[in-house]
Specification:
heterodimer; A: alpha/beta; Rossmann fold; 2 domains; 5-stranded parallel β-sheet; 7 helices; 5 strands; 63% helix; elongated; B: mainly alpha; Fumarate Reductase Cytochrome B subunit; 2 strands
Chain lengths: 232, 215
């Protein structure tokens, strides 16, 4: 089972919070779904299974604590993490009694999000879903080995150096390509470019002419010799 | 606008120690190199300070290296293996720095936790941190005690060669110390990147949600 198959529901009336979770967890292969209030969250939970639910406390309508209580009644196996900027002791007591996995205090860092995600999954593992053990280390298949990461890290300056050396040439090539393309699309420019290019093309013909002529003569000679040999 | 935790504490400690160390090394280095023109401190004091600061920065470099080697943030310094992607991103960034930024165009690079550098920064920092800085430290250590490392100095072509490399990189770093703050000021506010290197949190513009993950 890969982390990609795990779904996370983030409930917060501030869409920025959902986006933060999405940014951090989707990089790790989780599917992040957001809901802006508890009602929307409950209907989403009815429609599909979620591996972890993160919820804010203070929301219009039903609070996060009430949502956690409802979820724990309807789906006791789903870990619920409370995300809040207003951590009161009363709220904590009530949430603990409802069976929430943990509290997460704003402002959130990626490490906090990732850490609480893992903790919630770990807590859920022994009781309910043994298969989730793999999710504790998200992206095991897609994640590079540490050796490969270090190898890439060591190779990075040399690849960077190669890019730095190639960059001006690629840039000039692109400029030349864009210039030629622009000239081709403009009749006057084509005429002017042909006029400027004419002496250089002529010079190229003059330089290559003796070689082409000599090669032609050589080819005719060889062919004559072959034909004579065949005739004899 | 939202906040992303881009610069963890070890990186911030390393960065500011490095910044201070670089300024002091440049100052003492100038004093050592231009003894007749600059009279900040005595030659002996400048040499002793230069050596000590150098060793502090070598230790600091290993803090940086250790942090990246032993955390998943190592990805920040991974190269882009697709040349097409790399060159496309580089030219977009160059176009932005050279033209788009003056028109108020959005930055083509979107910062994320594992993708904090744009294509040009990524290439520059990979070369600086893993080639230029180690070579500068190495030549510095050789010059610190030329007698002890005589054989090695000889192997690299003598004191003049080692010293030339050290001075050339010194000139490069002196330029860097001026360009770096200028580039750091090119955020949505002049101080945003500086603030991010103090708090760890980078202010990032909100992007429209995309893909299945956001649903």
């Amino acid at each position: 089972m890969s982390a990609l198959q795990h779904k996370v529901l983030v409930v917060d009336d501030d869409p920025v919070v959902g986006k933060s979770f999405n940014r951090v967890l989707s990089q790790k292969g989780y599917v992040v779904v957001t809901a802006e209030n508890a009602q929307e969250a409950l209907s989403k939970v009815q429609e599909g299974e979620y591996d972890v639910v993160f919820t804010d406390i203070k929301m219009p309508g039903m609070s996060g604590i009430e949502l956690a209580e409802r979820l724990k009644v309807e789906r006791p196996w789903t870990p619920v993490v409370i995300v809040t900027g207003y951590g009161s002791t009363a709220n904590q007591e009530r949430a603990k009694a409802a069976g929430v996995s943990s509290f997460l205090e704003k402002p959130l860092s990626p490490e906090m999000i990732e850490g609480s995600m893992m903790k919630a999954l770990l807590d859920a593992v022994p009781a309910v879903l043994p298969g989730l053990v793999e999710a504790v280390h998200p992206e095991p298949a897609a994640e590079d080995s540490h050796l490969k990461k270090v190898a890439l890290f060591v190779a990075a300056p040399f690849i960077g150096l190669l890019y730095a050396v190639l960059l001006p040439f690629v840039g000039l090539g692109m400029l030349a390509y864009l210039g030629i393309k622009a000239i081709k699309n403009n009749a006057t420019a084509t005429k002017v470019a042909s006029l400027i290019a004419a002496p250089f093309i002529g010079l190229a013909f003059v330089v290559t002419l003796p070689f082409v002529g000599t090669a032609l003569l050589a080819w005719l000679g060889v062919r004559a010799l072959i034909e004579r040999a065949q005739a004899e | 606008m939202h906040k992303l935790y881009i610069n963890p504490l070890p990186v911030r400690i390393w960065h500011w120690t490095n910044a201070l160390g670089f300024v002091l090394l440049i100052a003492t280095g100038l004093q050592i190199r231009y003894l007749d023109l600059i009279h900040l401190v005595s030659f002996r004091t400048a040499v002793v300070a230069h050596n000590w600061i150098g060793f502090v920065l070598i230790a600091n470099f290993f803090l940086w290296l250790g942090f990246y080697l032993f955390t998943d943030k190592i990805k920040v310094y991974h190269p882009e293996l697709s040349p097409t992607k790399y060159f496309r991103a580089s030219f977009r960034q160059m176009q932005y720095y050279g033209y788009g930024i003056f028109r108020g165009d959005p930055n083509p690079h979107h910062v994320s936790v594992y993708h904090k550098f744009n294509a040009l920064q990524s290439m520059t920092y990979q070369i600086i941190m893993m080639l230029v800085v180690p070579v500068q430290f190495f030549t510095g250590v050789l010059l610190w005690d030329v007698t002890r490392f005589a054989a090695m100095v000889e192997m690299f072509g003598g004191v003049r060669v080692v010293d030339t490399v050290h001075v050339l990189f010194f000139i490069f770093f002196t330029g860097f110390i001026f360009i770096h703050p200028y580039l750091a000021s090119l955020s949505h506010t002049p101080w945003a990147h500086f603030k991010a290197m103090i708090t760890g949190y980078e202010e990032v513009e909100d992007e429209p949600e995309q893909g299945a993950a956001s649903r």
